[in-house]
Write a structure and sequence with these properties.
The complex is a heterodimer of chains A (about 350) and B (about 120). Chain A is of the alpha+beta class. Chain A contains eight helices and 22 strands. In chain B, the strands form two sheets. A five-stranded mixed β-sheet of chain B has the order 2-1-5-3-4. A two-stranded antiparallel ribbon of chain B has the order 6-7. The chains are: A alpha+beta (about 350), B mainly beta (about 120). At the A-B interface, helix 2, strand 9, strand 10, strand 18 and helix 5 of A face strand 2, helix 1, strand 3, strand 5 and strand 6 of B.
Chain lengths: ~350, ~120
């Protein structure tokens, strides 16, 4: 359970430092909580069980300006047992970027805003605060859910695999079978001009000697009952029902590790020359804001993955992997298993 | 089907679509609608309530016991039993957009303005 006893506010100033706006900052804490908690589990500082540890937001005050100006925040975890205490590394102001931009954009929509504004901002924290009442006063409690870890050897997994993609330091190793990538590429080509996708399933492993957690993707479940278009793919509630049923039928104790979807760049860019397409940013791996929002909604756990297959006209499909890092979503590397 | 007294409410287990987030919910008023139950749970389960454009995400509640999606207008006391498992499932889009994370382009009427934000200090 997350405890936040502070009200976070955004103060906007003109270049001459006169204050022109002040209002609440709506922060999505969940990605930070997920990342920090998983990192603690990974290092063995918290037991690998979700739902047993409370988390408290602690502002990090700005060194020069002092309270209430915030330079970032930490998350303090406190479990039932006295040894289950952990304080995360500080998160920087960058974590608030989405919330700051949203609040800034709201100000910019006011009639008084000039055409091209350069604004300055401060994030402030005041506390304690009363919690807003929820629509219904029913009690909830977290259900303890152990992280399903298999005891495995990371060096053995690496021995049969080749690293590929953009390196994101400190991310957990991820292994994907080469045959699965071929299957996904074929599915993407078969979908033609429409986006398509599916769910990645597999296992999480722990190597106690290496003190590391890693993920192995075993297969993908094609997303049924989606609404597919050239630039949009909608996962419906029926999609998730099908995936759950497939997982139960497989009986391999697999979990949802993430999802994949295609970017049919060959269709997006069909009116451009091949030379232009090769230079086009849409032909390279990227993760749109819709993709990020889906990932946040469906796969909040810090080990969750998103694979994008870039279907281009000038060559073979390429793959980009994305994952959580410090509460944000970044491109990352992965291992292809031969 | 036994219906708990109004004072006790109904106890449920609710999970997100991945099954990886789960909460026990106690004392849900039987005269609440499924829609009201869903709305009340979204914030408590830290589930996003809006899409990228700020529009409300549409969630459906799937009842494991009957293998069906519940209608938002159904009453908790009529549709659910004590101890039921319910999964919250959203309709959510992946796709291409042209929003930049660092510089937000905001449409104000017919003009587009460029907003740039820098830290004060």
């Amino acid at each position: 359970m997350l405890n936040n006893n502070f009200r976070f506010r955004l103060e906007l100033s003109a270049p001459d430092t006169s204050i022109i706006g002040f209002g609440p900052l709506e922060v999505d804490w969940e990605p930070a909580v997920e990342c920090a908690e998983f990192e603690a589990m990974r290092m063995g500082q918290l037991p690998p069980v979700y739902g047993e540890t409370d988390c408290t937001v602690e502002p990090v005050w700005h060194e020069t300006l002092g309270e209430p100006t915030v330079a970032g925040f930490r998350l303090a975890f406190d479990g039932d047992r006295s040894r289950d205490e952990f304080q995360s590394s500080p998160f920087s102001l960058g974590y608030f970027e989405a919330a700051i931009l949203a609040a800034g954009a709201e100000h910019h929509q006011s009639e008084s805003a000039s055409e091209h504004e350069k604004l300055r901002y401060r994030v402030l924290a005041f506390g304690p605060t009363e919690k807003e009442p929820t629509a219904f006063k029913f009690e909830t409690e977290d259900v303890a859910q152990p992280l399903p870890l298999r005891s495995s050897s990371l060096p053995a997994a690496r021995a049969n695999a080749t690293a590929t993609g953009e390196t994101a330091e400190d991310s957990i190793p991820v292994f994907v079978p080469a045959l699965l990538l071929e299957e996904i590429a074929e599915l993407s080509r078969s979908a033609g001009e429409k986006e398509t996708g599916g769910i990645l399933i597999g296992h999480l492993h722990r190597d106690d000697d290496e003190n590391e957690i890693f993920a192995s993707v075993t297969t993908q479940l094609s997303a049924q009952h989606t609404e597919a278009e050239l630039m949009k793919l909608t996962f419906t509630s029926e999609t998730w029902t099908d995936v759950r049923h497939a997982l139960e039928l497989r009986r391999q104790e697999e979990i949802m590790l993430g999802w994949w979807h295609s970017h049919p760049a060959r269709a997006w860019c069909k009116d451009c020359s091949l030379e232009s397409q090769q230079q086009c940013r849409y032909a390279r791996g990227f993760f749109s804001s819709h993709d990020r929002a889906l990932h946040r909604t469906m796969f909040p756990r810090a080990y969750s993955l998103a694979l994008v297959v870039n279907d281009v006209a000038f060559g073979q499909p390429s793959f980009s992997m994305f994952g959580w890092k410090e509460g944000g979503i970044v491109e990352r590397d992965f291992y292809v298993v031969r | 089907m036994s219906v708990p007294t109004k004072d006790l409410g109904i106890g449920l287990t609710v999970s997100d679509v991945s099954g990886q987030k789960m909460k026990k919910v106690n004392k849900v008023p039987p005269d609440a609608t499924i829609g009201e139950l869903i709305q009340g749970l979204l914030a408590q389960m830290q589930l996003p309530q809006n899409d990228v454009a700020g529009r409300p995400l549409r969630y459906q509640a799937r009842l494991d016991r009957e293998g069906r999606h519940l209608q938002p207008s159904e009453l908790v006391g009529e549709a659910l039993r004590h101890g039921d498992n319910v999964m919250l499932q959203p309709n959510v889009d992946a796709g291409l957009t042209n929003w930049s994370m660092r510089i937000a382009f905001v449409e104000i009427g017919e003009r587009k303005s460029k907003l740039e934000l820098r830290f004060l200090c």
